[in-house]
Amino acid sequence: MRWLALHLPLLSLEAFCATLPAEAAARPVVLLANHRVHSANSAAAACGIRLGMKRATALALAADLLPAEASPAREAAALQAVAHAALTYTPSVTLHDTQTVLLEVQASLRLFGDLAALHRRLVAALAPLGHRVQIAAAPTALGAALLAQWFPSLPGRRDPAALVTGPHATDTTALQALLDAAPMALLGSGRARGETLQGMGLHRLSDLRALPRDGLARRFGAELLDELDRALGRQPDLRRWVTLPARFDSRLELFARADSSEQVLHGASVLLARLVAWAQARHARVGAFTLRMRHERQRQAAVPATELQVALAEPSLAPAHLQLLLRERLAHVVLAAPTLELQLQCSQLVAGEAPNGELFPTQASEAEGLARLLERLRARLGDDQVQRLMAVADHRPERASRAVPAQGAAAVALSTAAAGPSTAAAAVAAMSTALPLHRPAWLLPEPLPLAERDTLPLLQGRPLQLLSGPERIETGWWDGEPAARDYFIAQADDASLVWVWRGRLPEVAGEVQWFLQGRFA
Questions:
Q1: Does the domain spanning 248-354 belong to CATH 3.30.1490.100?
Q2: First to last CA, the chain
């Protein structure tokens, strides 16, 4: 078996700083647990703040210190997103602890190539989540986890840029050689009995292996040796696999009051990165999502949450595109009160991988470009402001179509056009049947009465030349607005084509008989 371990040493701090503005994140930041420093960023460490230090001491060392409480729930949500990203490459993913994700990748190597190729894909998939990740490989799950947690202290591993590639042990012999140099504190049982073991002169795992097992078991119990045996593959190591939820639902508390849409978008980008990781693990693309903003109480009264629904004309997995659509929607939202918490939900996925990129423009890429344009217009102007024409079963031209919001069926039509040339051709043929070419696309709001001379209609005082017709329409007798007309295509003096009609009923003296209905482009 081949295991990969993803260890995130700064997960707690990164999950907190993700929603902070850039100027606030550059300040000394610490997370506290039981009034002591649990995590500290580099700016706080430069001020002399150390782990375990009391809150009051840390505040005395850094006047501009930004303290906050550590949150296991916040860390668990961030770690879950990492696990979702890992599920894209293998179904065998498990959580080792609150900072480490394990992947069993032996079968995945047949699909993605060697370990180096899989490693590159993982690094690229985890990059949008914004975490520092230490990766190690071993033939056992616990062995990989221990190497990932310890390897930065190995010789030659002090370059921060190299912290994403840890030692790889291909068999248990190589794994034992690497772990022999590891400190005793790496094992959970070793940390619990750290002072006792150090007092006995046991500093490394090789020191532990050199002692008689029976004596160690009587002195410290079997737990310490069992953990070492599981790391070296001498005992089975049972794990519980991570499963994907059917619906994405993630919350994020903002640690700086968001008074503007730009601040909200900064926090929402974290949730969008988690959404993309979840959708990729389900091998699908996002069709729609909902952002809910919970606000600060005003005058001791609760402010209703603001909800934004973003529907995509073309399903996507691009975080930049999802963020662009959300930005357009947020630009028109007036926040009722400062936002304190964000919640992102998604249950609308479109199965299948994203289409491959193309070197030259094709009919499919042009349809996708039109879909993206519709998405941006709808996000900027609103769904009701971007409309399309839908055919209506009525022979009267003024009633043969109506405007409806450009969503739903419009997206289906664009997807059909993008499916392939044959499908697109069939769609065009169907449209041609529904909208005959001998009728103009530009109709006047109301028919324009035309004067008549020698039985010919006049347009701007000049007679029209009738080219084709009549096309007889006689309908509407059942709804009280009957239409009995003969339509003609006529040519004006400037060679433009117009669509005119004459009433078919017997003429009445002085009544207008000819009308202009539309113009051909």
A1: yes
A2: 69
